[in-house]
């Protein structure tokens, strides 16, 4: 009996052990396939399958019982579409985009006194092809077709128009007065062998701060600061030879200091380690210096080939301003922006630089297309002319200064000259005038530059009632409406008509240019009721989400 | 001691049980993930993930650690590409095709005496829009724009050119003589009240078989056959009113019999159950009847809306020919083909039907595009004229008969008349002549029809030395070379230029038309050394495997 009882206990114990292990096993195996995690549904059985692409190469695909699946890495490359993984409410998702770039549906009719199209969204200075903002001229320098850098009137005008537009759309800047020549600031520190004084300046008609330091490296007049928000410096400055004004920036997190030196020379920009130098010219005269210090710092890094950094405006603070050599300082302030100053810098550069024939020649050599003669330095661009007119018309409107208006009118002349005669005017099949962004022979018929030119003509007529500009605008619009369909690919748009004029492979507009076309057409549709403008804008907008035109 | 020993045994037994269960568990879990199967590599773990398409709708995708996968069903619809599963050497594979339709690289220069482009590959009769081959005229009847059916000169000419081309490329047909009027065949069965005799016919200048039956359904003169390979019947037949010649076909597998009745009336085609009727006219005169019996059967089924069947040529045999009423039979034979007969049927129809102004008017109303006036019955088509010329030039070449040449020359006149004046001639921007396949106002500039017209002009000049044709060809080639780029979409081609002339959404050529463009350009490149023809052909061919033009 006792043996029986022992055997039964043994059996019972073994059974319990078995049951326990079976339960553990079941819990493990089921748990493994249903690992709880925020997002995951059941994993399913997929097998690999080779996919032959047009009989040319293979791609590793997957299939289940119902479907074949292709890797996005292949689709992305084959069709040039875009996609990214995102997490929404803890759930992972993939977002497919047929294109990139934004389309703006104008809320009101275009007004030349207002923003220039959607340029409040443009940031010209940060483009890689902008070498820096010239310390002498206050306008951008381009390296687009010449690494040494040159003044590209189109770029300068876009810079001006972007700042004009931001001046309208952005809030008033926050301003901190650093120095008023008189009482502010009391915080300058004068090193032992340096001198500083305040006197009335007859030219500025106000008191100014004058300084003189010795050759010693430590001889300086400097202002200690701790400003972390507003990085646009405006200063009335007079420098004598061998003098400089330096702004010291410090990285709040790291132990990093950057020195922006504004020096008495004509060197555009140079940089070494943490020192970045901008020449402000060799004239001992008062100049109003307006500098976006963060841009100046980033362009120094760009020159040194350092990687771009995100949000330096959040990471740096201005720790001091140092004066060396001798000179004077009228007023100085830091602000969140100084759009009006930048705008007028562009407008005045345009007036200053305009040739007697009204043109702003481009000093860089430009190879536009194979088998087409280069545009040699001195070529004109309809887009430069048109954008220039848009800046000057607005400058005239804002200031009332007739010099701006005269320059704008003078700029029309180049638009009337044929491309072969130093101008920019082409004609499509003896019938439709076109203003050439790149006045090649044979012509190219670039679309976006032509439309920008038309907007310049519109601006001049709307603001100043210029009748020549109106006629040229009307002729140009007739051309545009007739030829617009030739830019339609059925799934996008052409950048130009080189396939027609040169017999080469078509030049499709990449998506940011295509979006520009759409935006331009929506704007023009508000000015001209011809249905071709709006219907084309809508169809071209649909192309951006993959809705191609129908086939037969 | 005994208790200790018992406990140890218990413990040992429990441990063994645990070990055993653990081994089973491990074997199960690892085995589950690596189930062996014939073709399958390891199934991997994939999870479902939602993919948002342009923010508009979602598609169920899959992902693993490295890749996102999209279902082909989505890609196929979004991009209109093609794909199918295949098995190669027991391994399953997926074959992706960017397009469909074949491109032919010509092995030799186009010779108008030879095949017409690649029409040896065309099968006009089997197209759904061909209602049937007319029993009276021997040429196809179209239902493309009129369900009643009409003679479409373009279709008739293509029928002729396809048979001309097949006559060149296919082997000599195998021929079985059924009846020679004299000695063959001895196998006619004459029912009781019917009569049959053989007499010399002065018109045919040979002995012919004459027959007469009564009204009784069973009264017939018939020939028992068992022929399974050659289905093109050629017969010299004379019918009197209320008479018919019937071919009986039987399905080898099923118990199915089809009766093709060729009857003395003018009804194009009718069908009821297994009986299909073709009118051969109401003239009691000798006619040479050439019928592809399989095509005649299939068109009867098409009329009855029966589903198409694969390979009826393999499934049917000819079991008898039945003569009813009264008439005569000269010769009769069955052959694999009778291309020359079909070709001349087309050529003679063209001569017969040509109007005094040289045109072959299209009797159907045609709506070509929205907001464009319909082409009303009687319109001409450059493609009809051009294809007609191609047929007639070859007919003249083969036969020496001047009537064909006169008709071909006369056909040029319509090409010179403007579209608005009953002709087909348009001009692009006052500069480039175009021969319109659909002569609308405003013009359409259809590409493939224009090129076919040019080939007709080329054929006439090459075969007959026609100088007008040569000039018109040269002018057309100048137009083509100038305007070809306007048909380039950067990833395909346009069917026409309606987006330019009508301001509507572009009409992209579907792949079979695009392939036609490519084939036409390769042919023309062999006739004209201008590089635009070959470079365009190559680029457009590359589009068919997804190699788009570059963007800027």
What does this structure look like?
Two copies of one chain form a homodimer. Chain A is of the alpha+beta class and 552 residues long. In chain A, the strands form six sheets. Chain A has a seven-stranded mixed beta sheet with strand order 9-12-19-14-15-17-16. Chain A has 14 helices and 22 strands. Chains A and B meet through helix 1, strand 1, strand 2, strand 3 and helix 2 of A and helix 1, strand 1, strand 2, strand 3 and helix 2 of B.
Chain pair sharing the greatest interface: A-B, 88 and 86 residues
Helix content of chain A: 25-40%
The proportion of strand residues of chain A reads 15-25%
For the record, give the distance between the C-alpha atoms at the N and C termini of chain A, rounded to a whole number.
95 Å
Identify the strand order in the major beta sheet of chain A: 9-12-19-14-15-17-16
Using only CA atoms, what is the Rg of chain A?
A: 32 Å
Oligomeric composition of the shown chains: homodimer
* Total count of strands of chain A: 22
Q: Give the helix/strand class of chain A.
A: alpha+beta
Shape of chain A: flat
